[in-house]
Amino acid sequence: MSETFTSATNGADAAGMPARSRLSFDLDVDICVVGAGLAGLTVALEAARLGASVAVLEGRHVGWSASGHQLGTVMPGYGLPIGELIARIGLDDARELWSLSKEGAEYVRANATEEQIPGIALSEGALEVSNVEAGDALISRLQMLGGDFDTEVEGWQVDRVRAALKTGHYFHGVYYPRAFQLDGRRYLHGLAAMARRAGARIFEDTPVVSIDPSGIRKRIVTPSARLRASHIVLAGNVHLGAPLRRLSETLLPVWRYAAVTEPLGGRLAEAVTFRGSVSDSDGIDHFRIVEGDRLMWASPETTWAARPERFAPAIQRRIQTIFPQLGKVGISEVWGGAVGETVHGMPQIGQLRKGLWVASGFGRQGLNTTAMAGLLVARSILWGDERWRLFSPFELVWAGGATGRAAGYAIGLWGRGSAAAAGALARYRERARLKEQLREARLAEANRQAGTRPPRPRPPPGRPRPQPPPAANAADAEGSPP
After folding, report:
1. What is the pTM of this model?
2. Which of 59, 118, 206, 466 has the most CB atoms less than 10 A away?
3. Per-residue pLDDT tens for 188-215?
4. For residue 176, what is the enclosing H or E element?
5. CB contact at 8 A, 38 and 238
6. Integer CA distances (angstroms), 471 to 295, 464, 474, 475, 476, in order
């Protein structure tokens, strides 16, 4: 994600990561995983640890798309807001699903140690900030997360948020002390290395030509070999291709681009003192400090692919809008990848038919859900864990094809525009309130000063008091009897 991250990945490859191996011979395994992203590699690692024979088929190379281009933030939850989740499936099942998301985050933490993945650069804490004043909503959210969902959270008032982030664009915040962030690329390749050490076999440059899921032993055909397996796990996201087009078409392809700035020196410390990751409640900004004096910053989403370099000016402008004191920052690297977003906003996890599994739809879900999905599917296959049925209400829904992408793009533009308008209105109201408070303070000070002025001097003793003018007694003179 930065120059260091890229060179670290290349260094890991040069230091002993196996060269790409294409499947060129027929193979028989317990589990075949299609797709070597975060979810697929987690299935492979956990299944191999539990004693299964595993083969991973990847059409290009490990983590070539979204899994290799994420910001590395790990925190509980899903893309679907918690209130909508409760409305959809009820409080009890929502709590179970939330618990699974926490389990996924802790699974990542357990793997992401310096002993297992050197240079993982794990740091603590994540802050979700609001673009509008949300005091009442903040209290309600904290009570729900801390009480009903047993999640450690802190509410940050406006002053505390702005002490950490020197900008007037953000108001209240929710701080997750148990959330963390890491070098996403190192984690991905470390996961692949651990899966290989556990016994999983990863074949790159091996696209799947066809799948026959019928029968006890399912058959998979590649350009140069055939494979049989008792279970197939589809973890290829929007890139499953022609053999599974009906499944891939249930996902809306979304590209998100991110950048790392050039070193900003001391001026970054004057703008941002918070060392964890920051995301806003509207899903527009997501950033954190890396390498001490650089910003890693994600741009808004788009439903159409483009060269990453095209988004450098947009990210520059966004940084300058939020932190004008930084000026126009230099960009050292831009990257992006496509993820699949579901219509209902939840990941697709479970068994499609006997022996055919899916772990997909992780757009807007977070790294923790990929780990949770891989863990859950592997344990479902080998242990009979039935918790995947909690995702049954979130069925496969067609994403609308090209029309859906156009609609998604328009909705995204409208959402960002309405969020910007709401934020501008909130800042205007804040300025107006401050002006009114200042006016009232000045008026109160003027009244206080008037109340403390010295009294008017009294006439000196012995001096005759002034008499009322004669006209004051005229009525008595005219109306009294002689």
Report:
1. 0.80
2. 206
3. 999 999 999 999 999 999 999 999 999 8
4. strand 173-181
5. no
6. 85, 20, 5, 8, 10
